[in-house]
Protein 1
Amino acid sequence: MPEITYREAIRQALRYQLQNDERVFLMGEDIGAYGGSYAVTKGFLEEFGPKRVKDTPIAESVIAGAGIGAAMAGLKPMVELMTINFSLLAIDQIVNNASKLHYMSNGQINVPLVIRMAGGAGSQLGAQHSHSLESWYAHVPGLKVACPATPYDAKGLLMTAFDDENPVIFIEHTALYTLKGEVPDEPYRVAFGKVDVMREGTDVTIIGYGGSVWQCFRAAKTLETEGVSAEVLNLRTLNPLDTDGILASVRKTNRAIVVEDDWEFGGFGGEIAALIQEHAFDDLDAPVLRIAGADIPMPYNGRLEQAALPQEAEIVRAVKEMV
Amino acid sequence: MSQLANKPGHAAETAPDPIELLRMMMLIRRFEEKAAEMYARGKIKGFLHLYIGQEAIAAGAIAALRDDDYLVTSYREHGHALARGLEPGRVMAELFGRETGVTGGRGGSMHLIDSSKAFMGGYAIVAGHMPLACGLALAEQYKGTDRIAVCFFGDGAVNEGEFHEALNLASVWKLPVLFICENNLYGMGTDVRRVSAVIEIYKRVPEAYAMQATQVDGMDVLAVHDAVSEAAERIRRGDGPVFLEMICYRFRGHSMADAEHYRDKDEISVWRNLDPIKQLTEKLRADGGLQDAQLDSLTSDVEGVVNDAARFADESPEPPLESLRLHVYKDAADA
């Protein structure tokens, strides 16, 4: 199987959609002539033309809203908001319109829209460019939220997002674009709402999504050398959430840790911890732990930034205290 | 009831039928009065924003459009829904929150939707629906049709960021959108003069957005019809979006909860003299185009339709509790 980057995997899914579905078009800031701020759509304007690949003004609300409107009229738009930080300017459209129209219209209207954005921290971009707000979108009924962690997931989840009849928030992690992995050339789908057991284990379940999956994975490898068998779950999608998959793993290992880049307070880790204690309390040998970002605006300084993000060593230490 | 609706194949952009326009304005007026009565009787809950005083705009504009032109509106949209031909009984049932309502009791007064009539909804976040109009128009431009999207909003919307974003995008991409600002002089209880740097809203548009903009007497249904016909024709030709500012006045409060401390009785009575229904009735009588018997018959027709609507709503069932979680997502089980 060919090894390609996370970026290339996303490009493959987008090219497939543009080539195979006339209803699909892309729009966003600097996705055309510039080639995309993370170079995901480089060359697409030349290949598919300005009707299919539209450069927009820097106006996130109307970009999202026009995507919603076009989806209401039967097209299949892919809107790129560049980063999750800028999506805050489109949140009225996403929360008040995209997520609600199917329900409010009593099923008359649906919004088959893919909204892509890059999220995450770790590149010293400061407080306004380092958000991990996946849980905000996962909180809203009517939205689906995908957070690919691998090149394989990036392509397969994006293909599934385009098949979906609902608005999908597709959150890519900025630190992963150059990550390489095995990806089939042919089109394939990765189902929403099914965890990927990236590594099997028996002593503890370490749960991550998006970028944090790799801290979990590295921690599990270190723990193995110290005689602890850790299972790593990659959630793939936060909404729908594979509650059964999480519980099955926890019932086997009897311990769980959730790792996320997002702030701990009110974050997604709390939701998972609550689900586990509600449904698998008797299976637990220890309280469910959260290892999350520090509850602070992200500092610019590199040492401070790393101290604010979950680290492999922290996970290893926490697991050793648990088992 | 069907004669009140926009007939299929209604020839848009032609001379209006003044009697039809009068009938539609009368229907909207009586419907709204009945809604107020039903609200007072506790049959309608939540927010209820009446359109009384502004009927000329929905009636005149929508009669000048094609039936497949998209409409998106603010939350003061009962009049637009009726003018587009949504059944009065199903609209009233929606206000009552009943299963037979246009959105099965899920939307309510502020979210009337009937996509089969290209009535793409009432929206309750000020200016939040304006980007949707751009998207609907973009889709038709993409498909190569000559359908247009028409976006109704109030003067309160024009200081929102989404107003600016939508007008700019529509102009840059020459989208087939008609923006209709219903300037009733108050954003809820705030006089437009207190919060807008440029009070004559249409004057902002040509220079800021390179878009044609005109001010129209929104109390004159024939003037509204003419302006919208001309604008729609231009947009359909592919000449880009148009902005119309309709000067109007709502005779009732912002919503049923409004005690109206912010405007005086004299001002209201001046505008009541410009009542669009009264103006057209007087004009038609003077021209000899409307006889007493015909007016009586229109009055009783409309009265019958509205009473039937209220009865239909009142006799309709509540949505079943088992339907609570239906239509959150569209999927195979949601057919």
Protein 2
Amino acid sequence: MTVRRLILAIIVLVVAGGLAFWLLTIPRGLDPKSVADLAPGDAARGERIFWAGGCISCHGRPGAKGDARLQLAGELELKTPFGIFVPPNISPDKADGIGAWTLGDFANALKRGVSPEGRHYYPAFPYPSYSRMKLGDVADLFAFIKTLPPVSGRTPPDQLSFPYSVRRGIGLWKLLYLSDKPVVRLPADASEQAKEGQYLVEGPGHCGECHTPRSFLGGTEDSRWLSGAVAVEGKGHVPNITSGKGGIGDWSEKDIAYYLESGFTPDFDSVGGAMVDVQENIAHLTAADREAIAAYLRAVPPHPNGYPASKK
Amino acid sequence: MKKIVLAVSAVMLSAVTVAMAAGDPIATRKTLMDANGAAAGVSAAMLKGDLDYNPAIAKSAIMTLRAVAHSYGSFFPEGSDKGDTKASPKIWSDNAGFEAELAKFRADADAAAKAAGKDGPADLDAFKAAVTPVFGHCKTCHQDYRLK
């Protein structure tokens, strides 16, 4: 009798647990009404968001130069501890890219990490940052991407190891880490410039995705925001860009803006590694945007390096 | 201003740092890159107008870059990927690619030196035309062959 009751209890628990998992992990898009009310975007304005967002860094063809950079064919492989992610073709090709998407599809992908088929995207696609983007900017970006050359060809699927291969599990991850709220609470007297910089850095720029250490679950540790991290891909570390120990406290706002424009540090070392693409994207923004990013970086809380001292 | 004076004196010292090439390859190649950085610093100061253009300083910067371009590749022996270095393992795994980057850096530095002539580039525009291709190599090489 007791054994039967125990078995029954286990069955009930497993079913309830499965049901809870299923309910908690349903991919949830934006409120359809907020998307339906959205006016079509402006491609000219969207170009700014495109460069700020750095879409090319992952979706462009590796090593492409000049106009060939604008072919968003995918093809790069991001080798991480979770497995290999292959950013897909997001060119406006109707068959292989996102040419057949609606603006609502695009907004759900960027702001909620949900595909047009209603599946979760892996957060290697930095939608936790993009979720902070204004819907109007999302619409503008979509309009700009539509002006780029369509490229045919699909990328191979991601290769992930268990348990990361369970896509539905991302639903739980999103409950923990997906928020459209600002990360840093700027001082009440922060300048408009710093606030604009906050939007560019925390939203489209998604700087925190590489420059912030991650928990064992792979979420950014916002209490150590922008303090640098062990590189998720490859060797080495991503530098601390706060004013804390090991960071860039001795850079002036002018130094930061000049670095983003030219690729040269105050010591005239040059930008390197994955940051080269980022810097070249940011160089397309206006001087005012780069100055805003610099003002925000000066205003964020200082933290010591977010990576172990031995990692050079 | 102090930074500029430091940069100028570092350029002057560059010949000395190249001569120091002995013993520790990691330390040596860092001194070479420091000299490069100083040459870039004084060049940028003139290009940005923070420092008045001076053909002798311009020539000194170009010659520093050229000296580094010709010597730098000699300080990456097998095993020197270990230690206090940000050198990417790709330098050794894709050595042909690394050598090709260095060859381009050398070629553009040689061309700049030729353009500088005896007295240095005549004016700021001539200097800019001569050094801009050389500085382009900082990024392209650091993108693939240096960590971060």
